[in-house]
Amino acid sequence: MLKNRYILSSLLAFSSLNADSLGSLLFHGNCTTCHYETKTVSAPSMVNIRKHYKTAFSKKDDFVKYMSKWVANPNPETSIMLQSIEKHGIMPHLGFEEEALKEIVEYIYDTDFAKSQKGHINQNPSPKRNLSNH
């Protein structure tokens, strides 16, 4: 736990130098383990999550407040995505500090995951070509 606090403190210090990158760094270093940007595999895609939350909370402050609180304490009773919980199960408690969650959620609000962007993971690679001689 102390190591995680040191890493988080380092990342938060980095944020004062490059605030636009911290949310992306935290998101891609943690969330994409389960949440692919455009595909639903073991958890809902970020495109799907962002769509549901932006529909429910169009104002950024409301979006960030609700999602940050929910991710800090996942609970089916307060979820706006019950079908996803039924399909994939409840998200585990991850133990992020409030400031880290806010950085991640602000990044989610601001990012259109449906569009290809620099630094994003290509989750739909092109099919392998057959290179053998015919």
Number of helical regions: 6
Tell me the span between the first and last alpha carbons.
Answer: 57 Å
Strand residue percentage: under 5%
| Beta strands, count | 0
Average residue pLDDT = 81
Q: Which shape, going by the Cα principal axes?
A: globular
Secondary-structure element pattern, one letter each: HHHHHH
Largest sheet: number of strands, sense, barrel closure: none
The poorly predicted ranges are: 14-19, 122-134
Q: Assign a percent range to the helix content.
A: 40-55%
Rg of Cα set: 17 Å
Structure report:
The model is unreliable at 14-19 and 122-134 (pLDDT under 50). The chain has helices at residues 2-17, 19-30, 46-56, 60-72, 82-88, 98-110. It contains 6 helices and no strands. It is globular and about 35 Å long. Helix 1 runs antiparallel to helix 2 (19-30), helix 2 (19-30) crosses helix 6 (98-110) and helix 4 packs across helix 6 (98-110). With 134 residues, it is mainly α. The protein has a domain at 37-115. Helix content is 54%, strand content 0%.
What's the short story on this structure?
The protein is an all-alpha fold and 134 residues long. It has 6 helices and no strands.
Structural features:
6 helices, mainly alpha, globular, 134 residues, 54% helix, disordered C terminus
Task: Please write out the topology.
Elements: H1 2-17, H2 19-30, H3 46-56, H4 60-72, H5 82-88, H6 98-110
